[in-house]
Amino acid sequence: MRRPEAAGGRRMLNVPASAFPAPGSQQRAARGRRTKVPLKPGRSLMDWIRLTKSGKDLTGLKGRLIEVTEEELAKHNKTDDCWICIRGLVYNVTPYMEYHPGGEDELMKAAGADGTDLFDQVHRWVNYESMLKECLVGRMALKPIVLPKESTSALSEEKKCLNGMLPESKILGTSKTLAPSYDWFQTDCSVTVVVYTKQKDMNSELVILDYEDSRLRGEIIISDYSYLLNIELSNAVQEDIAVHVAEKVGKVEIVLKKKDNIPWKKLGQPLESHNSFIKHTDRGLYYRKCKLISKTEVTHDTKLFCLLLPQSTHFQIPVGQHVYLKQIVTGKEIVKPYTPVSCSLQTHFKEPSCHDGTCLFLMIKIYPSGLFSSELDHLQIGDYIYVSNPEGNFQKSQVQTLEDLFLLAAGTGFTPMVKLLNYVLTDVNSLRTVKLMFFNKTEDDILWRDQLEQLILQDKRFEAQFILSEPSKEWNGKRGKISSSLLSEFFKRSKQDSKVLICICGPAPFTEQGERFLKDLGYCKEEIHSFTA
Ligand code: FAD
Ligand code: NAD
């Protein structure tokens, strides 16, 4: 998940260091020897761990994650309703109050605010992510970046640049030589913006382009960094924008068709963070409105949603990445991750062209009591939904020279396996075997079973095993839940010391157990990839 920090890395709600420890506080009195308050019986660390594993809803949000604004955070500042932000993530610590060894008062110092500095001074060594995992409410919403004073001159510099001079990017936190730069030129009927990325392995998956309300936004991903063009264009252009990537030289060309064939005096006005090059995780998520164009049944509770991207949007979903969908549900903005799939498992099957745009296919399970999915189910054809840029930490390089790929999927945890299967079976020449273990409750829950069975027949490198946790009496396949014996029985390398990767995706306990069993079976960390948010 991203750290919602402003460019330049400043946190938004820092508690001044001098405010902690407060004069006369337990911490100041007992420097280096933290005072603990006596806890009530039944409030030990073990009791807390037991409570977090009980499945009880500790956030009050039924497991959903939300984006929290500063105003919202500030409202939760009471002992019976206390949220705290640590490193950009917001936790509802109300249920933890009575278990906190430092007492309620210490926790309340950061109530409704950013407790990062406070936390770092007292507990830096504590694995709070794990301790408070079940209390996670979501992340802080991005705040507009206020440019520092000295950048006013940089801005006028920038304005000049947009008149046609080659600008230098605002290099934030990286070496100047690595930062991309851009230029533009025009003909009678077009304007071309050229970004020089200085990379030798550029590809179109790394370029995300949007044009909306005369604003051109182009983001280019370079390793852990993101370069942004964000300009209010000075003249109108047509919706069909072309993007060309010269992979070897790292040049990205954005070709805009002028609406009126008149010469442009300048490209436009720079908008927030224009021409900046910052850590990818520090860049806020960008959403565009996509239209639902079809909704088809996959199983009794899962549907394939087809969304049409705006004509002027260019992005591709890299293998193993997910997007965030955003909807307003009962007046609140809710965001949930979903992993786009290909429209079919047939590797030779070309994506159908959706009118004249790009489609995104999402396989989504509708939970009757699920806040977001049930709302999605109510969307009508023609309705719009916000879709973010793709995110995720899976790299194609992890599978490019692979010999054996083992896939462990449970329920909709099958979704990241779809593009991955298509990719390896088509593009990875070294591949010898792909084995999928697919865990579901019942036969009716198996997603794309027909297609999987067809693929087994079509490609002899591919094998699949279906394991049911709630099978009917008639089921004569494998039964049960993930276990060491099931894994060792099926996941056999094609040859000793073959290069192998095991990908896991499903409910969190499934993924955690899978990782543990595989480590016990002798697979190393680099041979296991878990898909998570
Ligand atoms: P919530 O309101 O969060 O839950 C309400 C109730 O629904 C729960 O009490 C429970 O009864 C039921 N419920 C919700 N989630 C579960 C669950 N996991 N297991 C059992 N019962 C549950 N989902 C997809 O369908 N397709 C995807 O492609 C997909 N991709 C994902 C990618 C990532 C990286 C992650 C982290 C999750 C992904 N999910 C996917 C899950 C998705 O983000 C939501 O968690 C899911 O749609 C439930 O959200 P909800 O708001 O409908 O349910
Ligand atoms: P489900 O409840 O239908 O369960 C499917 C199977 O998972 C079960 O038959 C069982 O074998 C196994 N399972 C379930 N709970 C388990 C547990 N506690 N311990 C061990 N095994 C367990 O699954 P679903 O409703 O389809 O949920 C799929 C999950 O996958 C969701 O939690 C979703 O968030 C997650 N998901 C994650 C990603 C990602 O990229 N991280 C993508 C898609 C889905």
What characterizes the major β-sheet? 7 strands, antiparallel
Average pLDDT rating:
85
Euclidean distance between termini CA atoms: 6 Å
The residue fraction in helices comes out at 10-25%
Using only C-alpha atoms, the radius of gyration works out to 26 Å
Cofactors, ions, other ligands: flavin-adenine dinucleotide, nicotinamide-adenine-dinucleotide
Spatial sequence of strands, sheet with the most strands:
20-19-23-17-18-22-21
Q: Treating each run of at least 4 consecutive H or I residues as one helix, how many helices?
A: 12
Q: Give start-end ranges of low-pLDDT stretches.
A: 1-33, 145-161, 172-177
Class by alpha and beta content: alpha/beta
Q: What is the global morphology?
A: globular
Strand proportion = 25-35%
Number of strands: 29
Sum this structure up briefly.
The protein is α/β, with parallel strands linked by helices and 533 residues long. The chain binds flavin-adenine dinucleotide and nicotinamide-adenine-dinucleotide. Flavin-adenine dinucleotide is lined by residues 62-64, 322, 336-339, 362-365, 367, 369-373, 412, 415, 507, 533.
